[in-house]
């Protein structure tokens, strides 16, 4: 992220903008600063254009002396001038707390520029009540007193919120750090803008909208945020359990996941896939990694062909098996042939839409094939006498008769379970498939029981080796794992 000052007034950070990526603009709340969004920058900067800025009077942006300078319309105009300067024609606006009012004012003036809205812990009060009147009167009194005090126009800096983990709404240490960094004048002049109940014409908002709120918010009631979402036609509402108003700091994993899922819905599936391919295949290192993985896979299949041919030619006598010798043989021809075919079509459908998953997945499979080829050449046991005959012109190219130890039908699905382990649904689907295929080859007397049982242990070792050999590819794979 690069730091800038626009017009000697507005501090902002951006990553390297790319034309094919959506743009996210982040606005923080009262007395905070753009440093509140630092964890989100790291999460989103490789997939989106990011602009994060300090609102007026906060962080390193210019401070103003008068109460009128902190009217919401001025905050909204600052935002408009900044995005215009940066040449941002369309963007997703993400606001926190007080910035929700700036967000609404900006929509009122420039709704055509915002393709989607994300409100987090919005300080939007829809109804006047006694508490609101008391808070407004108290803050206004403080504003009058503060206006009589000396004013320091010097911009400050940014609070390191890592020093205040899991701080509550009323945490004295974090709130004092925020106020010290912002200054009393900017803090209370801005805060005063929040305590106004207005009819914000939320029904007129047409862009897709996400509202996120903490269930234990002590500053803005949960019901208030829910009412905001209900007034916006195309909106979603998410309440985060066990989190208060301080969602931006205390709920980074939940917030970032919710935001990512919401953003993914904005793009049709095919457009999202095209965008992924354009982004990844402009990276030369990634392109070479994909090419190398394909070459490695082709070489591994050639090795397997010769290993299987050799093992079949030198195969010795069959041996007894505690399972095969005690069960009849079943015709599992169709499952043996078409089961793996459907499995690999499914794996391709998982990997191809997310190209960053290609290198590690393909290299892991290639490593599996090479190591299994070595085991095949070292094991010269003949097939079980009454195994079924596999009919098929093409299957004979991959199954030779002497390639028994260990079972690829069992090992490869289990390898996919390990590769996609973080997704519990895929994990159990692949484990179930591995067990099912294992039972299938035993029923057809196509593998000895040791071939099937050992496949799980050997495959796990292969996966660990793949993680060590292909560290960068595994890291790249994990970055996108949550999107499956």
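-> sequence recovered:
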């Amino acid at each position: 992220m690069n730091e800038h000052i626009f017009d000697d007034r507005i501090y902002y950070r951006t990553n390297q903008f790319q034309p094919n990526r959506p743009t996210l603009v982040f606005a923080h709340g009262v007395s905070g600063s753009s440093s509140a969004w630092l964890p989100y920058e790291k999460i989103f900067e490789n997939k989106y254009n990011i602009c994060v800025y300090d609102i007026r009077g906060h962080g390193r942006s210019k401070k103003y002396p008068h109460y009128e300078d902190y009217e919401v319309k001025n905050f909204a105009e600052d935002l408009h001038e900044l995005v215009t300067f940066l040449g941002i024609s369309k963007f997703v606006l993400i606001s926190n707390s007080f910035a929700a009012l700036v967000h609404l004012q900006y929509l009122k003036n420039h709704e055509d520029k915002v393709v989607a809205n994300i409100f987090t812990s919005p300080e939007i009060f829809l109804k006047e009540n006694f508490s609101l009147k008391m808070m407004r009167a108290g803050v206004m009194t403080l504003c009058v007193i503060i206006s009589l005090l000396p004013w320091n126009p010097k911009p400050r800096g940014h609070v390191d919120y890592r020093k205040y983990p899991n701080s509550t709404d009323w945490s004295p240490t974090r709130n004092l750090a925020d106020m010290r960094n912002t200054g009393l004048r900017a803090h209370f002049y801005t805060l005063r803008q929040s305590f106004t109940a207005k009819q914000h014409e939320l029904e007129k908002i047409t862009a897709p909208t996400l509202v996120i709120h903490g269930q234990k918010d002590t500053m803005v009631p949960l019901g208030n945020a829910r009412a905001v979402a209900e007034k916006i036609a195309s909106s979603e509402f998410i309440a985060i359990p066990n989190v208060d108003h301080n969602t931006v700091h205390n709920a980074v994993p939940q917030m970032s996941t919710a935001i990512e899922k919401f953003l993914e819905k904005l793009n049709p599936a095919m457009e999202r896939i095209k965008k992924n391919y354009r982004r990844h295949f402009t990276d030369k290192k990634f392109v070479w990694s994909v090419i190398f993985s394909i070459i490695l896979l082709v070489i591994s299949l050639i090795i397997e062909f010769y290993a299987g041919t050799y093992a079949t030619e030198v195969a010795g006598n069959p041996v007894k098996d505690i399972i095969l010798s005690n069960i009849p043989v079943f015709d599992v021809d169709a499952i043996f042939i078409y089961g793996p075919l459907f499995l690999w079509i499914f794996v391709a459908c998982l990997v191809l839409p997310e190209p960053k998953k290609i290198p590690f997945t393909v290299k892991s499979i290639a490593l599996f094939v090479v190591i299994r080829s070595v085991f095949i050449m070292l094991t010269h046991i003949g097939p079980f006498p009454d195994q079924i005959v596999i009919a098929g012109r093409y299957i004979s190219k991959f199954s030779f008769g002497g390639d028994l130890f260990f079972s690829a039908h069992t090992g490869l699905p289990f390898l996919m379970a390990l590769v996609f382990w973080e997704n519990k649904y895929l994990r159990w689907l692949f484990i179930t498939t591995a067990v099912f295929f294992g039972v299938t080859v035993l029923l057809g007397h196509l593998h000895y029981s040791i071939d099937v049982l050992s496949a799980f242990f050997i495959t796990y070792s292969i996966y660990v080796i793949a993680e060590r050999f292909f560290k960068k590819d595994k890291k790249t794979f994990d970055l996108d794992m949550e999107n499956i």
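The first strand starts at residue 2 and ends at 6.
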